[in-house]
Write a structure and sequence with these properties.
The complex is a heterodimer of chains A (about 120) and B (about 240). Chain A is mainly alpha-helical and about 120 residues long. Chain A has one domain: 3 helical TM bundles of succinate and fumarate reductases (Up-down Bundle). In chain A, about 80% of the residues lie in helices and about 5% in strands. Chain A has four helices and two strands. A two-stranded antiparallel sheet of chain A has the order 1-2. In chain A, helix 1 crosses helix 3 and helix 3 packs antiparallel against helix 4. The longest helix of chain A is centred in the C-terminal third of the chain and has 31 residues. Chain B is built from nine helices and seven strands. The longest helix of chain B has 17 residues. By secondary structure, chain B is of the alpha+beta class. Chain B has a five-stranded mixed sheet with strand order 2-1-5-3-4. A two-stranded antiparallel ribbon of chain B has the order 6-7. In chain B, helix 2 packs parallel to helix 6. In chain B, a hairpin with a 2-residue loop joins strand 3 and strand 4. Chain B is elongated, with a radius of gyration of 20 Å. Chain B folds into two domains: about 100 residues, Ubiquitin-like (UB roll), CATH 3.10.20; about 130 residues, Orthogonal Bundle (Fumarate Reductase Iron-sulfur Protein, Chain B, domain 2). Chain B starts with a strand and ends in a 9-residue tail after the last helix. The chains are: A mainly alpha (about 120), B alpha+beta (about 240). Chains A and B meet through helix 1 of A and helix 7 and helix 9 of B. The structure holds FE2/S2 (inorganic) cluster. The site of FE2/S2 (inorganic) cluster has 12 residues of chain B, from loops.
Chain lengths: ~120, ~240
């Protein structure tokens, strides 16, 4: 059993499961609130104002979306990385892909949080 | 009567790989392995395949028979509908016809140290184990290393560095063994993306195992143990 790389995969595997379970909860709640049952519509049509009013209504929704975004980004990018990793890239290529995923992930979360804070604050 | 369509390939000749058909006249109570022996002895002495015990113990005769990895010596021709298509195990170099180079398979097996590690003093007679402790490993020790799981695993199709279900099943066999005290060292070795975390829980290995073992389940258990070990900071990294 020669020494190999770290056991980081144990944590990413675990986090993938945890985020997966939480995303199921997030998704059901999101669909329930924004698309299916709750009346966030004006004259029966789901629209921007309805969604924004809902987001501004309580602290709970703010926390909800701030958590939802990084979870979904992590789950999606890590899942994609797991597929790519099946093809056993050379270590340099693997490092480049991982770095690109980190950049993409951080950018997506930043853009999402900026957009959300505008909505929370009542901006457009 | 049965028709055997057998994969033929000799890397040393210029002929391309092909399927060759053979007619076997009397197949009553005949196994696929006996059919292959019939071809070898009566029709085509150049056909190459592996076998030894002829009774499902040695694991040498695993091959791809009618869409599934099976032991040729335990597969009845009549169960195959008298049309039998045979290919070699996948993911390994073909040496000739149905004989593959098992080196990567056994190399991976060797890497997981498939023997007891006990740093305590060697007892006078034997390492004692209660029947209850023995029962925990009962199932896993039955693996005959036939390679059916290795051939059926789609992860190995793209990633030859993956240890494979055969090796990982054996890891659980030693992790669960009360006489072995290297559980965390073993877990640390396989808790990587060329070990248990490369497995996508596809269940092919479990489906094809001729001994009805459950490598997928074993890998699942190892994942849980590894995550627990990681969170408790117990996974040890060691040298060779
Ligand atoms: S010849 Fe030994 S298992 Fe089939």
């Amino acid at each position: 059993m020669a020494e190999r790389v770290s056991n980081q995969s144990a944590l990413t595997w675990f986090l993938q499961r945890i985020t997966g379970i939480l995303l199921a909860f997030f998704l059901v709640t999101h669909l329930n609130v924004h698309h299916l049952f709750h009346d966030i519509t004006l004259e029966g049509i789901i629209n921007f104002s309805g969604v924004r009013e809902n987001l501004q209504a309580s602290l709970w929704w703010k926390i909800y979306y701030i958590v939802f975004v990084p979870f979904i980004v992590f789950h999606a990018l890590n899942g994609l990385w797991q597929i790519i990793a099946d093809f056993r890239l050379k270590s340099r290529a693997a490092m480049i892909v991982k770095a690109l995923f980190w950049i993409l992930g951080i950018t997506l979360v930043a853009v999402a949080i900026m957009t959300l804070s505008n909505l929370f604050g009542g901006g457009a | 009567m049965a028709i055997f369509k057998v994969f033929r390939y000799n890397p040393e000749s210029y002929e391309i790989a092909r399927f060759q058909e053979y007619e076997i006249p009397d197949t009553e109570s005949m196994t696929v392995l006996e059919g292959l022996y019939y071809i070898l002895e009566n029709i085509d002495p150049t056909l190459a395949f592996r076998s030894s015990c002829r009774e499902g113990v040695c694991g040498s005769c695993a091959m791809h028979i009618n869409g599934e990895y099976r032991l040729a010596c335990e597969t009845q021709v009549s169960d195959m509908g008298h049309n039998v298509t045979i290919r070699p195990l996948a993911h390994m170099k073909i040496i000739r016809d149905l004989v593959v180079d098992l080196t990567p398979f056994f190399d991976n097996y060797e890497k997981i140290k498939p023997y007891l590690i006990n740093s305590g003093p060697v007892p006078d007679k034997e390492f004692k184990q209660s029947p209850k402790e023995r029962k925990r490993i009962d199932h896993h020790v039955d693996c005959i290393l036939c390679g059916a799981c290795y051939g059926s695993c789609p992860v190995l199709a793209t990633d030859s560095a993956y240890l494979g279900p055969h090796a990982l099943l054996k890891v659980l066999r030693f992790v669960d063994d009360s006489r072995d005290d290297a559980a965390y060292e073993r877990l640390a070795y396989v808790a990587t993306d060329y070990g248990i975390f490369r497995c996508h829980t596809i269940f092919n290995c479990q489906q094809v195992c001729p001994k009805d073992l459950d490598p997928t389940g074993a890998i699942g258990k190892l994942k849980m143990k590894a995550v627990k070990g990681k969170l408790l900071g117990k996974l040890k990294k060691t040298g060779t």
